[in-house]
Each structure stands twice: as structure tokens, then as C-alpha cells.
Amino acid sequence: MNLDEAIEKTLKAGEILKKVIKEVEEKVVVGKKILDIAEFIENRITELGAKPAFPCNISINSDAAHFTPRRGDERVFKMGDLVKIDAGAHIDGHIADMAISIDLGENEKLIKACKDAVFNAIDSIKDGVNTAKISKIIEETIKKYGFKPVVNLSGHGLMPYLAHAPPNIYNYATQRGVELKEGMIIAIEPFATNGVGRVAERGECEIYSLVNPKPVRLKAMREIISEISEKFRTLPFAKRWINKSELLISKLVREGVFREYPVLSEVSKGFVSQWEHTVIVEKDSARVVTF
Ligand code: CO
User: Fold this and answer.
1) Is the predicted pLDDT of residue 1 greater than 70, yes or no?
2) 212 phi and psi angles, rounded to 5 deg
3) CATH number (domain holding residue 241)
């Protein structure tokens, strides 16, 4: 695959993704089922000619990342909710990743802090920029609004069939970063909070990926490994996307075949906002794939 083709497919995936997220924005209302929104996004991405790069994440309030509804989930959006929609689309593994926050309460300022951080960061991106500079801009922007960045969630590179590739782009100033080069595809993804600024697992888990397709003894396990590898390769998938027993899935996690993505929640129960765009680093600027 030549570079132009990779860029072209990423741009096409980005175009589809931003269209779908635009369409869904007005559908996120009090009383609507979270599952309906997740399925709408995933189905629309497919209808428009791409594939979901990972299960649509719809984390709410102090949940920051990795929440996706389970099959038959009846939970709905509530008055006051701060809703994060984080979705990905890919064409032949070339991924666009994007997130927005939707306010069903009074969290406008918390959302603006995060959105501004993304665009300030993007303004600084060009060939040769150090990620430490981007991180500093993100932290400063969020703090200017009186909030904190979540320090243990970061932006990241995107590579074919790898939704979280190096380098990490931290959302707080670091001593040292890496130099970005023309042609690199990265996601700028800050999270802002009115809490202490750290997330931890809170138990619930609906998202997995195949990390080590090693030989296993059980036939049922071999079958699920080959099915997952064929359908999703190394990309994350949701439990509701596959029709397999809990027991089998947890066995594969224990064997190190699957990796889990448990819901990450702000440790002090602070509300969390998120904004994300995928960009291609160019010589003198950044090209936003999802805007
Ligand atoms: Co991302």
C-alpha cells in the first residue's frame, strides 16, 4: 500500500465519521436509549462505506472512556448528563477517530475548555513539532478555564488496524516528547474535569481486543479466536457484537488472548468532558481529517 492510498482512505473514513457524528448530535436527548445511539453510529458508519474502528464509546458524567452499552441495555440519557460520544471509522484499517461532548445539563464551560484545548493544540502542529509542546498547550488551555486535564488518558498515533499507536500525546506538560513528522496520523484527545484529574477502572467491561492469538486447547476457544481475527483483526470489539458466552470470554482474557477495556471513571467522581480530532501532520500545518 502506498502512502497516498493510506492518506486517501483515512480522509474518506474521516469524512464518513464526521457526517455520522453530526447526524447523531441532535438525537442525544433526555430519555433516549444509549444503545440506540451506539447502534445508530455503528450502522451508519457501515452504511456509508466504512467500518467501526471500535465500539462506539458513550461515557457519561464521571465515566471518561470505554463505556459502551451491552446487548439489550435499557439505560437512557438523563437530565443533567454530560455525554461523550467517541467513535472511530476505518477503511481497510485506515482509521479516523473523533469525539465530542454533548451537554444535557450545565457543563458548557467544561466542554469548551476541552474543545479549545484541541483546536489550540492543532494550531501548533506541523512537521518537526515536539509532542511536549502540544501537551503543554492542552494543559494550559484547560487550566485557564479552572479545570484539570485527566493525566492518565492521552492522545495517540493511528496506524493501520491499530486504534492506539505510538506516540502518546499527553494532556499535561511533560519534560520530553517526540518529534512529529510529516505524514504521521495522530489523534488529539484531551479530557477535562472538575475533579482531581485521574481515572481508574470501575469494574464494568464490554470492550475487548485480540492481543495474542496463541494456540488454545478448547475448540470453542479456537473458533472464537479465528472469528474475531477475521472480523476485527487487532481492533477492539464489543461483547454485544459477538454471540459468545461470558465464560468463554473471561477464559480468553485470563489466558492473555483478549485484552479488556474496562470503563474508566474519574476517581473523585468529577464530571469529565472530551473532545477529539484526527489530524495528518503536514509540512507547515495539520490537516484535520474529522472536521
Ligand atoms: Co482516540
Assistant:
1) no
2) -150, 85
3) 1.10.10.10
- Give distance in angstroms: CA of 255 to centre of ligand 1: 27
One domain, residues 211 and 269: no
Query: At residue 62, what are phi and psi to the nearest 5 degrees?
Result: -80, -5
Rounded distance between C-alpha atoms, residue 121 and residue 101, angstroms: 18
| First-to-last C-alpha distance (Å) of the chain | 25
Give yes or no for a contact between 253 and 221, defined as CB atoms under 8 angstroms apart: no
**Ligand 1 centroid to residue 86 C-alpha, Å:** 8
Residues 247 and 278 in one domain: no
**Whether residues 232 and 151 fall in one domain:** no
Q: How many CA atoms lie within 13 A of 57 on its CB side?
A: 31
User: Which residue range forms the structural domain that includes residue 145?
Assistant: 3-203+264-288
Residue 166 is inside which H or E element, if any?
strand 162-169
pLDDT digits (tens, 9 = 90+) for 250-291: 999 999 999 999 999 999 999 999 999 999 999 999 999 998
Whether the CB-CB separation of 58 and 85 falls below 8 Å is answered with yes
Count of domains forming the chain = 2
47 lies in the same domain as 128? yes
Residues with CB under 5 A from ligand 1 (ion): 97, 187, 189
Cα(146) to centroid(ligand 1), Å:
24
- Residue 256 CB: number of other CB atoms within 10 A? 10
Same domain, 141 and 221: no
CATH number of the domain that residue 24 is part of: 3.90.230.10
List, by residue number, the catalytic residues.
86, 97, 156, 164, 189, 276
Largest CA distance in the chain: 56
107 alpha carbon to ligand 1 midpoint, in Å?
Answer: 22
- Residue 78: how many CA atoms within 13 Å on its side-chain side? 6
Which pTM does this prediction carry?
0.96
> Alpha-carbon distance 185 to 135, whole Å?
17
Residue 219 and residue 274 share a domain: no
